[in-house]
Queue: 2 jobs
Job 1
Amino acid sequence: MSFVAVESIGIIGTGIVGRAVAAKALRHGYSTTVANSRGPEAVRAALGDIGGLVHAGDVSGAAVADVVFLAIPFQLVPRLTDEADWSNRVVVDTTNQFEASDPYRGRAHIGDLTGSEWVADKLPGARIVKALNTMFGPYIDADPQHSEGRQVAFFAGDDDAANTQVASILTTFGFAALPVGNLREGGRLMQLDGFLNAKHMLLQNALDAPVD
């Protein structure tokens, strides 16, 4: 499947990750639809100053965007199975497999699956790309461009075209988008307790490196 330019972004969830992605999407000119479980007015209230600039809708409305960011607690993902047609939808999984949220605690037991493989099972037909789960929310919200380099955003997925679309969004947002493999090997590195989880790194511009 060839690369298709991304014009619209859907976001499911209005926590710190959902709000951060919405702000960046709007700032960079994407048509942005945001949904949560409490309806459009609650979406606008949760998004504060930018709430009036988004399309506030339901899950099915957010799911028709070119790329959908999944930004809800891990244990709530099964509620979305019948909320939209996920066939061929590019979904960015930002979740970590905590057993419970508010506060986040424990680790969900999902057998041998990685967290994103489990998410893919709950959203049948979706083309899942793991991204933005390895950073704490304030790092996603902040400007990823620093004098020392760009904030690294790892991503992993099984679909090359979906990976390319997500990488283009992350790059547009200002991150250094770095692929780490498929949902099995790469997803394991990125998921809760994985080697890359909670690692915050900058990628220096090679042209700025000191020369001996």
Job 2
Amino acid sequence: MIRSWQIGEAMVVGLTEYFGPVHVPSLLFPAMDHDVLRGLRSQFEGVHWFESVDRLVIGFQIWILHHAGRVILIDTGVGNHKSRTTPRANKLNTVVPAWLAAADAGPDQVTDVVMTHLHSDHVGWNTQLDGERWVPTFPKATYHIPKDDYAWFREFNLSGRAKDGGSFYDSVEPVVEAGLARFVSPGDRIAGCLDAVAAFGHTPGHLNYWLQSGGRSAVFAGDVLHHPVQVYRPAWNTVVDIQPEIAAVTRAAFLERVADSGSLVMPCHFGPPNCGFIRRDGDGYAFTPAGGELSSGLAAQDPWSRHAA
């Protein structure tokens, strides 16, 4: 599935690796209160939550940014043929390479690969199999890796505590060893157009990337938000937040910043249309999905005028 949005002079393409009602709410969110989901039934049912099976819809999103002649991937999903401990992510065999080509983001076209953090479902297409070796999928690209995350995950894997199926070794280290990595810290400008902002908590080095173009703004939010329910309950952490006490503070600050700003918020795990806008709602916040049409390649409508502040 491919959708596109125009942001000033930039084109953002959302490529969904896969999505579906796959997560048990109380397992993903330890603080889950089903009364909250039922209260949001008119917005969530059949889109973000399937009540009949009590599963949250989670997507796996690869964002593609076309700007000033550069082709930039933000997070690269799960990837094919990777050994993972989670059954639904293990040994995938999808047609993502064909979809990337349709979005003008083939292996020789991508100039930059940007990572919000180093969890396995955000780095998978960094590499692909060449015989029995994992090699960079995008050999002409610079791979922008959060410096603090790299240090933490490297130590975590060397200590033998990692249980993610080895993504650090099959999807991160090969690009470092190939000399394609650039390490990113908060405050850095990435790929000529993205500003790296600290968003620690989900992982110790998690970054958000902000885009400003033509008077409009957008943020590639990674996993600051996993599901729209967190817009309504920002204090709800996920079981995969490494630093939950920091994650909740970061999420609250993020929502305060984007609310009513007109900035397009692009997390990695929302169901279709995968992105949207945050508005203030009384003492809290609400989520409005972005408009847009399914597109073939980059032939998309610009729905922004219906939503921008």
